Amino acid sequence: MDKLPSLNKKIVTVFSLDDIEEEKKYWFSKSPLERIEAIEINRRMIYGQDRVTSRLQRFLETAELS
Whole-model pTM above 0.90? Predict the structure, then answer.
């Protein structure tokens, strides 16, 4: 999953935010692998590719007490 899928902006679907059951049915119809892939795609879309692959910076140091 190196490249993000393209977004088709010609298709618009409107759902009610109160209809949680339809959303549950949709995600329960997907395999666990497909669910994790969807999370990864969302994470890359929000944070970008560089933020996904970069590591955390070290910001703590140890000091010896006398």
Answer: no
